[in-house]
Structure formats: C-alpha cells, structure tokens
Amino acid sequence: xxxxxxxxxxxxxxxxxxxxxxxxxxxxxxxxxxxxxxxxxxxxxxxxxxxxxxxxxxxxxxxxxxxxxxxxxxxxxxxxxxxxxxxxxxxxxxxxxxxxxxxxxxxxxxxxxxxxxxxxxxxxxxxxxxxxxxxxxxxxxxxxxxxxxxxxxxxxxxxxxxxxxxxxxxxxxxxxxxxxxxxxxxxxxxxxxxxxxxxxxxxxxxxxxxxxxxxxxxxxxxxxxxxxxxxxxxxxxxxxxxxxxxxxxxxxxxxxxxxxxxxxxxxxxxxxxxxxxxxxxxxxxxxxxxxxxxxxxxxxxxxxxxxxxxxxxxxxxxxxxxx
Length: 323
Prior knowledge:
It is built from eleven helices and no strands. By secondary structure, the protein is an all-alpha fold.
C-alpha cells in the first residue's frame, strides 16, 4: 500500500511557482569570480611570493637555508595543523554570526506578532503598532551599519527617512534605539494599550534581540588573538620558503618547479581565506562576508511590507555577490 502511494506521488509533476524564491547557490561560472576576489585580496602576498621565487631561482638566498626532505615534511605537517585549527575557528565565527543574524530575523518577526497579539483590540492601536514596527526595522539597519561601519548611500538615506518618521535625529545610535524601545513599551502599558503580561512578553522579545546584538558586537570587536594570527602567518611563509628551496634543489625540472609554485599558492590561499572569513562584516560585499543587506531587506519586507522604500533596494541571491 505504501509503495503504491509513493509510486503515485513520483508520477505527479512538480509545480514550480517561484513565489517563495530559491535557495542561494553559487553558479559554476561564478567560481571564477570567487577566485578573482581571492586573488585580488592576495595581490600583495602574490607580489611577495613572486619576489621570493625570483630570489630562489637566482640563487640569491644562502644555500645553508635549504632544509632536507624530513624538515620540509615536518614543517608542512605543522603548517597544516595550525592552518586547519585557525580556519576552523574562523568558519566558526562566521557561522555563529550567521546564526545570530537568524535570531535577529526570528525575533523581529516575533516582535510584530507579539504587538498584534497584545495590543488592545478594542482601541485603535494602529499608529502605535506602526511606530514600533518601524523602530524595530530602524534597529536592524542601524545594527547593519554599525557592524560594518559602511553603508550603501541609498540605504543610508532610507534609514534617515525612517528615523525622521520616528521623530529621531539621524545621529541616533543603536543603543539609543534599544533604550527607546523599552520606553515605548512602558508607554503602551501606561496608556492602557496592553496589560502587564503583554508588556512582559514584549520586553522578553526585546531582550532576545538585545542578546543577539550583543553576540554580534562581540564577534566584531573580538577577533582571534593577534599573536596567534601572526604566528600562523609566519609559520606558513617559512614553510613556503623552505618548500621553494627544496624544489629548487631537486634540479631544473620545470614540472617540479611549477608544482612547487602551485602548492605554495594553495597554502597561501588557505591561510588568507581563514583571515578573510574571520571578519564576517567586511564592507567590500565579497563572498567572504555575510549578506547583511539581504537579511535586513527581508526583515523590512516582513514587518513593513511595501510601506517603506527599503524593499525597493535591489539585492542579489547569489552568495558570490552578497551585499
């Protein structure tokens, strides 16, 4: 019986409405763009590598610096271990930041639902509800701007207009907006628009948003220890130098020299990727950073629908071109 049902379902055609969008995916032709973004960021490293390669092949580096095969292997293992640990921590920071932004999205939706649930339906709370929804949208955009210390000009103008609608100066910071949320929740209770339980629920939602914001600020302001980053970088460059010298001593075989350069570039890329992913709030909108504008636009649309021009800003679903 079950097999017959499964078989009948398999025969039914899939309907693709396209109404809900599609999961972001990196198209194959975008792999080149990812590589170009990485190489552009590494341009100074590649210039230093080119200089070292020239020095090695011109025999301008002392011969007693050359290490035997065992030393090169040991250094390669050490570099791999430290690179692996550092990159794992960097990816962990990136993923934690993404989960916290996911919490901000959920909290923002809960904020809208809680307002509609707890405001007194016997009184006209529409103006107060719209004001508090706009306040939440202003909070998430201000969080976006302060984490990156960067913004698109049109989005900054939209944020200024949003603050103006709330009768707030454009210099209002994130902490001031959070404090204002607590004040306005108290005003709802004093005006009789919500009862004590409703005020408690709204404060709990607001506190959950504050907790997520604190986690994001911690990730931004506390990178991995600089001493560890410097050590890994120096260890990687030392291994690169020893590897180039080792392959140079094998002889003038062009294939071995080409292979050494490829291996060296891959090690440099691995080290640099960890350094770039460690900061998920970069301003260059590359594939290494989080799609903050896209996340904030989603929240704006969920809370305000088309009541604001925020949703008119074009965004990309391609993770290579995230902004």
